[in-house]
User: What shape does this take?
Amino acid sequence: MPVFTNTYTHNIEYFCPHMNIINWIQRQRIRYTLKRHPISYELWEAVINKASLLHNLSPTEKADLRELATLFLCQKTITGAQGLLVSEEMKVIIAAQAVLPVLALGLDYYNGWIEIILYPGAFRVSHGDVDQNGLVSSESHNLSGESWLRGPVILSWEDIEYELHAPHPGYNVVVHEFAHKLDMLNGRANGMPPLHPRMEIEQWTHALSVAFETLQQQVANQHSTRINAYAATTPAEYFAVVSEYFFTAPDILGKHCPDVYLQLTQFYRQNPVARREHKITENVR
Assistant: This one.
């Protein structure tokens, strides 16, 4: 039974009779922002060196990422919680990882919200639930990240910092939560972000549904899995987790879930495996 499907699809690319004028105004604003509020070269290089998932980017991609991160920081606010003081380096570390998924898509994919709340460490949340009998229950969880449909992204700085010093394949809390934001563009988190016009919904649905159900069976039978078992929770979590693998461990995702990897290359319009192989070839030379 396909689970990665949606009767409503949203195409973020739209037509406007005054598009040329609007585009010109937007380009002028972008030039102004990049000129007046640039991320310093020294700070940017320090962040690139710290974040391993950015190491394989080409010089051109790093330059584009820097521009997107600059614009991102001008559009979004990053607020410290529980007395946390947020430095400029912390902001750039978050921005650089947040814009990686939209490097080839653009910041319009992050429209509709403005705030990132940064906790010192894991934060505790309580969610109410109502069962079929009307009984209301509440559960509390410690989280390293959370995304709200029309609200903020909430992150744990401790988890972000730990990933910088000890990166783990298939795990990146920033990519995970911003993948949820992309997923929610269709109105809810269900593993079905807005696909591009030339992508086939049936192919996306089949590839992710088969892989998701296979993972669920492996978890149910207590078999070892190469993809984090948390991905078997819901289609939304599956999409967020495989997005983490796509950017941090693309070789693992490509080997064990090749059809999913192919769909993500089409959605994100990036190919991290090819990028990594090109980097290895360059280093051999």
Q: What stands out?
A: DSSP finds eleven helices and six strands in the chain.
